[in-house]
Write a structure and sequence with these properties.
The protein is an alpha+beta fold. About 15% of the residues lie in helices and about 35% in strands. The protein has a 6-stranded antiparallel barrel with strand order 4-5-6-11-8-7. It is flat and about 105 Å long.
């Protein structure tokens, strides 16, 4: 058995990623395993309008007319929202993420998504749109020409489209107006949140940090949170302290899990998956139905042409095969055994679900 079995293809429609028994531990950087509490992005949203469309904007959306009337009124132009029939305008939702430690004057990328029945945002311009956080305060304002990264065109009987024309982006389209106050260098204690909570991984992280600094700075509160005290030598220099922690090598543990995507026939298994003693019987029934209409054309002038359907049904049952798996079978051995009995993607999914139902699959089974 090879140390790593990367892929095992059951058929052309099945992608089976296998991480079999690994003899050498593969460590990861601490920055790829944990997040520092408080150092995160904040979502921003805003309601805006895209103008300058070539007749592809909203056609029967009432709030678009109301929004346009309100915008014109702020500019000193009074109009009746019920009489507005401008198809060159589209109501949109503008979203962005305010990164941690962002400063005033910085730029953000924004995403523009149509809210109404606009067909295409190509060539439009987003007018000034305030972007608010969860607290209702304005943190940025967005404006600029939108880019959909594709196109859409249609005629009377045919249309062509590339990508998604009702969602657009503006690179650097928002300007930061308000900052999120968080002084990292003033902190005396930090909390690290594991991206995949696990008691073993948390324990390994604590030991690695304490061994690195030679003192008990870290302690695990639970499987997903690590309490960290900033040492005296790094007081006021927390950035340097975190920078040193980020490159610390940690060997993360993982639970035994099998993930199945029935829509695509994809199966992903972890290296710790084990199978207890079990016997598998595999056999399939194939039914083929063929329709071949028979046309009868009489020679006489008064006769009528008739079409008689002819149906052929052919049923074949594949020969059943039995495969016995002993206790403690590894993932690689399980895959080779299933390949030996010629399973298809759907068969493999059904077999894994049956093994789990029988209590012989020592792993969590997740169906997407």
């Amino acid at each position: 058995m090879t140390p790593i079995k990367a892929f095992s293809v059951v058929s052309c429609t099945l992608a089976l990623l296998v991480l079999a028994g690994v003899d050498v531990a593969h460590a990861a950087r601490l920055k790829d395993v944990v997040d520092v509490e408080g150092v995160r992005g904040n979502p921003l949203t805003g309601f805006g309008m895209v103008v300058g469309l070539n007749g592809t904007g909203d056609s029967s959306v009432s709030f678009t007319g109301q929004s346009l009337a309100m915008m014109l009124e702020r500019m000193g132009i009074s109009t009746d929202p019920q009489k507005i029939k401008a198809k060159n305008i589209a109501s949109v939702m503008v979203t962005a993420t305010l990164p941690p430690f962002a400063r005033q004057g910085g730029k953000l990328d924004v995403t523009i998504s149509s809210l109404g029945d606009a067909k295409n945002l190509q060539g439009g311009t987003l007018v000034l749109t305030p972007l608010k956080g969860a607290d209702g305060k304005i943190y940025a304002v967005a404006q600029g020409a939108v880019s959909i990264g594709g196109f859409a065109a249609e005629g009377v009987a045919q249309s062509v489209q590339k990508n998604h024309p009702t969602v657009a982006r503006i690179a650097g389209g928002a300007t930061i107006e308000r900052e999120v106050n968080f002084e990292l260098n003033q902190e005396y204690q930090l909390q690290l949140a594991l991206r995949n909570p696990d008691f073993t991984t948390a324990n390994r992280v604590v030991k690695s940090i304490n061994n690195l600094f030679g003192e008990p700075l870290a302690s695990a509160r639970d499987s997903g949170t690590i309490q960290l005290t900033v040492p005296a030598s790094y007081q006021g220099k927390v950035v340097d302290f975190v920078s040193r922690l980020e490159n610390l090598q940690v060997d993360p543990d993982q639970t035994a899990k099998v993930v199945i995507n029935e829509r695509t026939g994809t199966i992903v298994m972890g290296e710790n998956v084990r199978v207890s003693t079990v016997a598998l019987a595999h056999g399939g029934l194939s039914i083929k139905i063929t329709e071949s209409p028979q046309v009868s054309q009489p020679n006489s002038r008064g006769g009528a042409t008739t079409v008689t359907p002819k149906t052929t049904v052919d049923a074949k049952e594949a020969e059943g095969k039995v495969l016995e798996m002993e206790a403690g079978v590894t993932l690689g051995e399980l895959v080779r055994g299933l390949n030996a009995i010629g399973v298809t993607p759907r068969d493999l999914i059904a077999i894994l679900q049956s093994i789990k139902a029988a209590g012989a699959l020592q792993a969590e089974l997740e169906v997407m």
